[in-house]
Amino acid sequence: MKQVLEFEKPVVKLREEIEEAKKKLASKPSEKLATQIAEQEKKADTLQREIHANLNPWQRVQISRHINRPFMLDYVKHCCDEFIEVHGDRHVGDDHAMPAVFAIWGGKRVAVIGHQKGRDTKENLLRNFGSAHPEGYRKALRVMRLAEKFGLPIVTLIDTPGAFPGIGAEERNIAEAIAFNLREMMLLRTPVVAVVIGEGGSGGALGIGIADRVLMMENAYYSVISPEGCAAILWKHREHAPEAASALKLSAQDLSQLGIIDGIVPEPLGGAHHDHETAAASLKEAVLEAITHLEKLPTAQLLEERYQKFRALGKFTED
């Protein structure tokens, strides 16, 4: 499935012209044409670098939602040498929007939990568009407690527009499930690394987001509300979503400056949707680096630093 974002169109058009020229070159070799193609490829790379060096928050939100962007299980397949998925919360059932696996990540045994979206209608219905139910968060905590029991680091991969707000989720107490996770994750006696790989929406993201290290992919976003939701409240219309995105300070760059996150994971030129393997390699390295550091800390220090990290969040000014 091909999706071209509005600001990507000049580059896409140029690369399509290059591909056409390459076909002509293959059928009729020409030194002049080969030189022109090389120049056009340099021009396309330069244009793409210029565009992505000046992305605004709303454009990053659009990239974070790209249909070809690697999802949680894509990263698991690329980053893990082997893995096995576990199912069910032992109370209600299994939630396909919140897969959980035990895996070997760069030689380290870990538990990986995250939100999973779909790329077509059938898969999105199965994954509930990445919006987890209460049983998803309870399954996540069950797996985290198993990881704690066996001394395994925990990796959470966040990619959700928000927890599911449906009647069934309310009946099964979605608010309690998330709140309970917030408390229990603060007390886990094992290293926890959270990475926002796409959308980081509201409590749905926080439900697996309490960690010793919180990282973000370069073009992800992390916010208390979606830009569209904010625009609907403040401006009474979703068309103001780009203004809301700027006001919310939801990009990795803004959140790093505010001290909300601990690091930014670089993406390949043009975004992770252009090169899954390179994006996964960056994520794998960043997570391993964080785990290696955290494993050296005594448990008491690990818990204290985690507590102080979240107590220190937030900045304000006084007149």
How does this structure look, described?
By secondary structure, this protein is α/β, with parallel strands linked by helices. 50% of the residues lie in helices and 15% in strands. The chain has 14 helices and eight strands. The chain has helices at residues 9-27, 31-53, 57-64, 72-79, 121-127, 134-149, 167-171, 174-186, 202-206, 227-234, 241-248, 252-258, 276-294, 299-311, and strands spanning 80-86, 100-105, 108-114, 154-160, 192-201, 213-217, 221-223, 263-265. Strands 1, 2, 3, 4, 5, 6, 7 and 8 form an eight-stranded mixed beta sheet that branches. β5, α9 and β6 form a beta-alpha-beta unit. α4 packs across α13 (276-294) and α10 (227-234) crosses α11. The longest helix is centred in the N-terminal third of the chain and has 23 residues, at 31-53. The protein is globular. The mean pLDDT is 92.
Write the layout of secondary structure elements.
Layout (H helix, E strand, L loop, with lengths): L8 H19 L3 H23 L3 H8 L7 H8 E7 L13 E6 L2 E7 L6 H7 L6 H16 L4 E7 L6 H5 L2 H13 L5 E10 H5 L6 E5 L3 E3 L3 H8 L6 H8 L3 H7 L4 E3 L10 H19 L4 H13 L8
Helix pairs in contact: 1-2, 3-11, 4-13, 6-8, 10-11
Descriptive terms for the model:
eight-stranded mixed beta sheet, alpha/beta, globular, single chain
Compact summary:
The chain has 319 residues and is an alpha/beta fold. The chain has 14 helices and eight strands.
Sheet-strand content, in percent, reads 15-25%
Euclidean distance between termini CA atoms: 52 Å
Largest sheet: 8 strands, mixed
- Please report the number of helical segments: 14
Low confidence ranges? none
Structural class: alpha/beta
Helix content: 40-55%
- Run of helices and strands: HHHHEEEHHEHHEHEEHHHEHH
What characteristic shape results from the CA principal axes? globular
On the 0-100 scale, what is the average pLDDT? 92
* Oligomeric organization of the protein chains: single chain
